[in-house]
């Protein structure tokens, strides 16, 4: 059984109530299309890696994914109204950008060791427009360290979402889920940095292949 007792009671309640609420909200305000559901493992730990354009991807993926996801999110978001409350209530794992955070790594490896799926945005930040930017090596490093697979995800339609909703439109959102990527163990004799970069490029290419050409950015 998946261990979730590390979460405070209010996070467990919020996830139980909030996920279906946001799912319904997205269904009412947008047209959500999901493909590749068969690529989602039924159980066990893995890492989910979507592209990241706007603030809408985290609640979108968290609400429509069949299992609760442990989410790594930038600590800077804690300074923003509403987003910070949602992050705290959900029980996200905070990321300090630009530095090696060993407590973050331990927390994420702990979740994976407990058999929980983890959501990481490999671009590391929102791009605010379609077009992939250079991927960080963190997701690949964790996958190799924990011995778990990576599930690439491509999302379109979130870049002008709020603008179109305010106009009374129901914009279309697509979520494309790709086949699992398996990262080999990084042996001590291997040039780890080169290997991490190579496998990260492969991951970003896999995400790009799930997106239309104008969303692929550096990986077109």
What is the tally of beta strands? Answer: 8
Order of helices and strands: HEEHEHEHEHEHEEH
Please give the alpha-carbon distance between the first and last residues.
Answer: 41 Å
Cα Rg: 17 Å
Overall average residue pLDDT: 89
Provide the β-strand percentage band.
15-25%
The helical percent reads: 25-40%
Q: Which consecutive residue ranges, at least 5 long each, have pLDDT under 50?
A: none
Based on secondary structure, the structural category is alpha/beta
How is the biggest beta sheet arranged? 8 strands, mixed
Total helical segments: 7
- What characteristic shape results from the CA principal axes? globular
Structure description:
This protein is an alpha/beta fold. It contains seven helices and eight strands; from the N terminus they run H-E-E-H-E-H-E-H-E-H-E-H-E-E-H. It has helices at 9-29, 57-64, 83-90, 102-113, 138-146, 161-166, 192-208, and strands at 31-35, 46-50, 70-74, 93-95, 118-119, 149-156, 172-177, 181-182. Helix 1 (9-29) crosses helix 2 (57-64).
Essential attributes:
220 residues, alpha/beta, eight-stranded mixed sheet, 37% helix
Tell me the layout of helices and strands.
Blueprint: H1 9-29, E1 31-35, E2 46-50, H2 57-64, E3 70-74, H3 83-90, E4 93-95, H4 102-113, E5 118-119, H5 138-146, E6 149-156, H6 161-166, E7 172-177, E8 181-182, H7 192-208
Parallel strand pairs: 1-7, 2-5, 2-6, 3-4, 3-5
Antiparallel strand pairs: 6-7, 6-8
Helix pairs in contact: 1-2
């Amino acid at each position: 059984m998946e261990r979730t007792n590390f979460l405070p009671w209010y996070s467990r309640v919020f996830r139980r109530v909030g996920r279906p609420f946001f799912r319904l909200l997205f269904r009412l305000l947008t047209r959500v299309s999901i493909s590749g559901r068969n690529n989602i493992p039924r159980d066990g730990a893995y890492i989910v890696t979507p592209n990241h354009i706007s603030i809408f991807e985290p609640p979108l993926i968290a609400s429509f994914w069949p299992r609760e996801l442990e989410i790594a999110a930038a600590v800077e978001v804690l300074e923003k109204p509403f987003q910070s409350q949602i992050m705290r209530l959900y029980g996200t794992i905070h990321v300090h950008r630009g530095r090696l955070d060993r407590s973050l790594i331990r927390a994420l490896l702990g979740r994976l060791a407990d058999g929980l799926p983890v959501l990481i945005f490999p671009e590391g930040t929102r791009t605010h427009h379609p077009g992939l930017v250079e991927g960080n090596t963190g997701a690949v490093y964790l996958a190799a360290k924990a011995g778990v697979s990576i599930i690439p995800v491509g999302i379109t339609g979130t870049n002008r979402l709020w603008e179109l909703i305010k106009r009374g439109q129901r914009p279309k959102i697509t979520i494309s889920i790709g086949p699992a990527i398996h990262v080999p163990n990084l042996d001590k004799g291997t040039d780890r940095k080169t290997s991490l970069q190579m496998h990260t490029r492969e991951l970003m290419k896999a995400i790009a292949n799930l997106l239309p050409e104008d969303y692929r950015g550096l990986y077109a």
